[in-house]
Write a structure and sequence with these properties.
By secondary structure, this protein is an alpha+beta fold. It is built from 4 helices and 9 strands, in the order ααβββαββαββββ.
């Protein structure tokens, strides 16, 4: 008699004995299910779809089919396009402090460094406020480029070596913390 049983036979035996014996195939499927992509539910995009994801060294951009750009990750060089954390905090002090639990939060990793990170994706409001629909995004290590539906290019992030194409060779122009149009 052969002591090796097929997955089906083992499954049938388990069902006949009313116990929870799993086949090798079921165990492998559980492992695959555990290691597969899961829906990211930390930000609500309604019925829209993410059509592109771009990653830099320590930040990520998401582009929705409606032209909205979302960001998360490190903001040390302004690469999230949302300004710097300390500036946002000063503005928030003047406003009512009403926040819902699902509101993304700017977290200062070190108040002296004026460095922040976003751990939950948030919209880059600058594009929305300026009625700009983005159709493509790209990330460098610490800077980003976005193209709108008119073919105009915007940049933000680390700009010390001219990555943002802003025409500034001034040593003081190290960071562009909100998107800016690249002038040709």
């Amino acid at each position: 008699m052969n002591n090796v049983s097929s997955g089906e036979e083992e499954k049938e035996q388990g069902n006949n004995n009313n116990d929870e014996k799993k086949t090798d195939q079921e165990i492998e499927k559980e492992k695959l299910d555990h290691n597969t992509w899961k829906k990211l539910e930390c930000f609500d995009i309604g019925n829209n779809k993410i059509i592109k994801i771009a990653t830099g060294s320590e930040h990520t951009l998401f582009l929705e089919d409606n032209g909205t750009v979302w960001c998360c990750g490190d903001n040390a060089f302004g690469q999230l396009g949302i300004g710097f954390g300390d500036e946002d905090e000063e503005e928030d002090e003047d406003e009512d402090d009403i926040e819902s639990v699902s509101t993304p939060t700017t977290i200062n990793s070190n108040a002296d460094d004026d460095v922040s990170a976003i751990y939950t994706p948030q919209k880059i409001e600058w594009f929305i406020i300026n009625c700009i629909k983005i159709v493509d995004i790209e990330c460098g290590l610490y800077h980003n480029l976005a193209m709108d539906e008119e073919g105009r290019i915007y940049s933000w992030g680390h700009a010390k070596r001219g990555q943002c194409g802003n025409g500034e060779d001034d040593i003081d122009m190290e960071y562009v913390d909100i998107p800016q149009l690249i002038e040709w």
